[in-house]
Specification:
CATH architecture of the largest domain: 2-Layer Sandwich
Number of strands: 14
GO molecular function, one term: 3'(2'),5'-bisphosphate nucleotidase activity
CATH class of the largest domain: Alpha Beta
Cofactor: Mg(2+)
Keywords: Cell inner membrane, Cell membrane, Hydrolase, Magnesium, Membrane, Metal-binding
Membrane topology: Peripheral membrane protein
Structural class: alpha+beta
CATH topology of the largest domain: Fructose-1,6-Bisphosphatase, Chain A, domain 1
Organism: Campylobacter gracilis RM3268
Helix content: 25-40%
CATH superfamily of the largest domain: Fructose-1,6-Bisphosphatase, subunit A, domain 1
Order of helices and strands: HEEHEHEHEEEEEEHEHEHEEH
Length: about 260
């Protein structure tokens, strides 16, 4: 399969996962995983839908609900990296801020990505060069509100310090939807100064990069890699296209966190 065919496959997978999640939105059971994070019927249904949809590609799949072992992640030339329901806590809270994340990793970096937003049905997708929203070309933003986003559950004072330093309004937003907001020009920056998993950000990283923004690993000061031994990302900073002019200054400030 070429990249266009793989993108069509991933888009179909995200749409089916969106539908599976919404079928469980009004009534679901909550389980607790070994790491004490929540799991619902919707996570499992979305995972099953994605696994079935991506299977014809013949490419290995690493999902939050079916992890590919580290040896294979490090040795496979390509593999799918999937979060079938990013923002399970937001799903449980019924605030709409949850999404489906699918990325195709090649030699450690994403080369294709799809993010689906179940509550609206929106699909963001790219296999390089351009980003599409529901099949229509997404314009590269030349301006954005002075807004700095972080998650609902982050408690560190670092977020407020960063926002104050760069004269931005601090806003909480759940899941990888934040990357879509940045790609559309709905905010200027987003950071994570605590641990999260590879599948949480790979798709958003690619979409944002393709629309003129960037995600930078605050430890390596380079783009994140997704084929390492650990499933945990280093802390990172994401900026939209219109804020790229301030990226160096932001990184210099954030790296000390």
């Amino acid at each position: 399969m070429d990249l266009n065919e793989l993108l069509a496959l991933a888009t179909d997978a995200a749409k089916k996962a969106n539908a599976a999640i919404m079928q469980n939105y009004d009534k679901f059971d909550i389980f607790v995983k070994a790491d004490r994070s929540p799991l619902t019927n919707a996570d499992l249904a979305a995972n099953d839908a994605i696994m079935r949809a991506l299977e014809p590609s013949g490419i290995a799949i690493c999902s939050e609900e079916r992890v590919l072992d580290s040896k294979r992640r490090m040795s496979e030339e390509r593999f799918w990296l999937v979060d079938p329901l990013d923002g399970t806590k937001e799903f449980i809270a019924r605030n709409g801020e949850f999404c489906v994340c699918i990325a195709l990793i090649e030699h450690g970096r994403p080369i294709l990505a799809v993010i689906g937003i179940p509550i609206s049905g929106d699909i963001y997708s790219s296999n390089g060069g351009r980003v599409y929203k529901n099949g229509a070309l997404l314009a590269r933003p030349n301006s954005a509100p002075q807004t700095f986003m972080h998650g609902h559950h982050g408690k560190s004072v670092k977020y407020a310090q960063f926002a104050q330093r760069f004269k931005m309004q601090l806003v909480r937003k759940g899941s990888a939807i934040k990357f879509c907001i940045l790609a559309e020009g709905g905010a200027s920056a987003y950071a994570r100064f605590s641990d999260c998993s590879l599948w949480d950000i790979a798709a958003g990283d690619f979409l944002l990069h393709q629309n003129g923004g960037a995600v930078v690993d605050l430890k390596t000061m380079k783009a994140p890699l997704y084929n390492g031994k650990s499933l945990i990302n280093n802390h990172y900073l994401a900026v939209g296209a219109s804020a790229m002019k301030n990226l160096s200054e932001m990184l210099e400030f954030a790296k000390n966190f």
